[in-house]
Design a protein that fits this description.
It comes from Limosilactobacillus agrestis. Belongs to the LysR transcriptional regulatory family. The chain is an alpha/beta fold. The chain is 41% helix and 24% strand. It has ten helices and 13 strands. Strands 8-12-7-11-9-10 form a six-stranded mixed beta sheet. It has a five-stranded mixed beta sheet with strand order 4-3-5-13-6, with helices on both faces. Strands 1-2 form a two-stranded antiparallel ribbon. Helix 7 links the parallel strand 9 and strand 10. The longest helix is centred in the N-terminal third of the chain and has 21 residues. The radius of gyration is 22 Å and the shape is elongated.
């Protein structure tokens, strides 16, 4: 296990992107992938979970990251042990942020870049999980800051501010006759077949769309259930008469091109599913400043 490989691992974990880490480290992406593969082989576990459009740390990866940060900090102290220091560097501080998986990270990435400029010695770990998994981590004290769908935030957690506006949209093939519409009601979809997310993945939203269909006088004709966004997009792309749902904060235009689908706004009551920032569990000056930056 080499120190250079550990540094590569930390940078990839920070960026959650092999491409961005490659540019930052001036190391080719294939080389980084090989180093991480060898590290995972040596440890006997997966450090990263590779999604269709993103990368996240596995539970073992999160634990290994925190241990690696401490190890590298100690190594740095050893390497400079006998060098005179007029101003000792502050100790490395770690902040763990929870963020729902599959959501567009553009705003989060931009805000974290500002955070890093304010706190150059701050190590930020982002965990991308399902809304329910994020709540579990928050309740067990494994997260310092939580960004989650407001509908999933328990009453016991105080919401500080809205992080990102968000609502449900409809996914449909570009060949679907309804795809030229800018907005559709649930009643407009009564003759369509549906691709739904498995309820265990997002129970509140599945219950919401089923409830809206019943209120519009029909039952969903569900053709298939999927476990993630990529599966849903693929199903709709391959079947012109099947439709599904996506959050506006996930609905990147590049996905429309990649899967040849159209995202259409859903006109339905209470269709507000904003991402919110929970108030810090422990109010330290660092967390207070980070919270302000994230919600500005």
């Amino acid at each position: 296990m080499k120190i250079s490989t550990l540094k590569y691992f930390v940078t990839i974990a920070e960026e959650l992107s092999f491409t961005k880490a490659s540019a930052k480290l001036f190391v080719s992406q294939p080389s980084l992938s090989r180093h991480i593969h060898e590290l995972e082989q040596e440890l006997g576990t997966k450090l990263f979970i590779r999604h269709s459009h993103s990368l996240s740390l596995s539970p073992d990866g999160e634990a290994f990251l925190q241990a690696t940060i401490k190890t590298l900090e100690q190594f740095e102290q050893l390497s400079t042990m006998f060098q005179p220091k007029s101003h000792p560097e502050p100790p490395l501080e770690v902040v763990r942020i929870g963020f729902p998986k599959n959501f567009n990270r553009t705003k989060l990435t931009q805000k974290l870049e500002i955070c890093k400029r304010h706190f150059p010695h701050l190590q930020i770990i982002v965990s991308e999980l399902s809304p329910l998994e994020l709540n579990e981590k928050w309740q067990s004290g494994q997260l310092d800051l939580l960004i989650n769908l407001e509908t999933y935030i328990p009453e016991s957690i105080r919401v500080q501010a809205t992080f990102l506006k968000n609502h449900l949209k409809i996914i449909m093939s570009k060949k679907n006759p309804l795809s030229h519409k800018q907005k559709l009601s649930m009643a407009d979809l009564k003759n369509e077949s549906f691709v739904l997310l498995e309820r265990k993945e997002s129970p509140l939203i599945v219950d919401y769309v089923i409830g809206q269909a019943l209120a519009s006088g029909f039952h969903f004709n569900v053709k298939t259930y999927v476990s993630n966004l990529a599966e849903g997009l693929s199903q709709v792309s391959l079947n012109n008469q099947q439709v599904s749902f996506i959050y506006s904060a996930m609905a990147d235009s590049s996905l429309e091109e990649q899967y040849q689908v159209k995202f259409v706004s859903l006109d339905a009551p209470n269709n507000h599913q904003d991402l919110v920032l929970a108030s810090p569990r422990v109010k330290t000056p660092t967390l207070e400043t980070l919270s302000q930056i994230l919600t500005e």
